[in-house]
Design goal:
By secondary structure, the chain is an alpha/beta fold. The chain is built from 14 helices and twelve strands. It folds into two domains: 2-112 and 206-389, TIM Barrel (Alpha-Beta Barrel), CATH 3.20.20.150; 115-199, no CATH class. The protein has helices at residues 16-22, 42-53, 70-74, 80-95, 131-141, 153-164, 168-179, 191-199, 206-227, 252-261, 273-277, 284-290, 323-339, 371-389, and strands spanning 2-6, 26-29, 59-64, 100-103, 115-119, 125-129, 230-233, 267-272, 295-300, 302-305, 311-314, 348-351.
């Protein structure tokens, strides 16, 4: 397995020389400065790739992400130019030797959390999704009255009481926490702007969104196959409907539908153990085993779930997912690919959503992407991979 690290480009407060010191060799990044729907110019891709390669032997290994324009997700109007632009960006990336693209099809929001600094045992902070706080945001701040039907009476009562005690600063912090998950963007919505953005999705249900995703696949996957590229959809985070928006990559059945919709090896999945692990019905190792042949990239992290649907980022080897079992499945898949004669059998992975620890505190890195916390996670994952990769030791009879 190949170690990689997400880097948010020149504005990232973690530098490339620091990433070299983590031991990772692959960089996972994107051209965040280019507006969604526009072509990524080949010369800009080449310049960013050269910038990365100039530091300690790093290599741009995965694009995360080449964003899918919201108009494509909504199936809105004439999309021919947007699809053409996406295909041209793919061709430009391939020409620069970058052939793996992680993308998502989550409407409007990417990962969603209600708190960015939940305390963890022993010190440090973690990302957290709290059902009560989400109910406060949807019902009492955003004014989405229909949301009340999606929460239990206990959650509604707790949300009402907690909202009454919130200050303006508390409300601003909750809004900022939820907006922090916008996909690779630096602009954030106000409540009024979010209401307007949600209005554009009025009437969108799971079937309609799935149809729009199928259209995207039929437009893009043949080009990926021609270019020798691998597309890998990221699961929904959290794996449930959010703000009345449908989510369609949340379960084993969702992944099966997506991979069957365009049955090409270029149409693959990003195995995000944290996103899938936040769903109470998902057995992440079993999902990995079933779809191992289509896993083109992996995000390895862990979450601890709570009975009411809340969850919090756990340490990489803690939480509800058996990370050792999961890594064993990925290593077995690499061996299968090797035996099948694949010239590119390594699965690129990165540690994801680390705790803020030690000198991370106050540094102002991208939420969920601190230096020390992710380096701890990478070291733990590296240890598991090393241990599982060793040949068994056989001891002779003692004389």
């Amino acid at each position: 397995m190949r170690e990689s690290w997400r880097w948010f480009g020149p504005l990232d407060k973690i530098s490339l020389p620091e990433i070299v010191q983590t031991g990772a060799s692959g960089i996972v990044t994107a051209l965040h400065e280019i507006p969604y729907g526009e072509v990524w110019p080949r010369e800009v891709i080449a310049a960013r790739s050269a910038q990365i390669a100039a530091v300690g032997g790093l290599q741009w290994a995965v694009v995360e992400s080449l964003p899918v324009d919201e108009r494509i997700k909504r199936g809105e109007g004439d999309l021919s130019q947007l699809f053409a632009n996406y295909r041209q960006s793919m061709a430009n990336l391939a020409a620069c030797g970058i052939r793996t693209i992680c993308y998502n099809f989550m409407p409007l929001l990417d990962w969603t959390r209600t708190r960015l600094d939940a305390p963890v045992a022993g010190g440090g902070t973690a990302l957290r999704f709290d059902q009560t706080e989400m109910a406060i945001f949807e019902i009492f701040m955003l004014g989405r009255e229909a949301a009340a039907n999606t929460y239990s009476s206990d959650i509604l009562a707790a949300a009402s009481a907690q909202f009454e005690a919130m200050t303006k600063d508390d409300k601003d912090t909750l809004l900022a926490s939820i907006m922090a998950g916008l996909p690779g963007a630096y602009d954030r919505y106000s409540l009024a702007e979010l209401r307007r953005a949600l209005d554009l999705y009025q009437g969108m249900d799971h079937a309609a969104l799935r149809a729009n995703h199928h259209r995207f696949l039929t437009e893009i996957i043949p080009t990926a196959a021609e270019l020798g590229m691998r597309m890998c959809v990221h699961p929904d985070d959290p794996p449930r409907d959010i703000l009345g928006l449908p989510r369609i990559v949340s379960t084993k059945a969702d992944i099966a539908w997506l991979l069957d919709a365009v049955d090409e090896s270029a149409n693959g999945v990003t195995l995000c153990s944290g996103s899938l692990g936040a769903h109470p019905d998902n057995d992440v190792p079993q999902i990995a085993r079933q779809f191992a042949h289509r896993i083109n990239f992996a995000h390895l992290r862990n979450v601890s779930k709570e009975p009411d649907g809340s969850f919090q980022e756990a340490a990489h080897l803690a939480g509800d997912t058996d990370m050792v079992a999961l890594i064993r499945i990925l290593l077995d898949e690499e061996q299968r690919r090797k035996q099948a004669g694949s010239l590119d059998c390594d699965i690129v992975f990165r540690p994801d959503h680390g705790h803020e620890l030690l000198s991370d505190i106050g540094r102002g890195t991208h939420p969920g992407y601190p230096l020390v916390g992710r380096m701890r996670g990478l070291a733990e994952l590296r240890g598991v991979i090393h241990a599982l990769s060793q040949k068994p030791l056989f001891h002779g009879q003692q004389g």
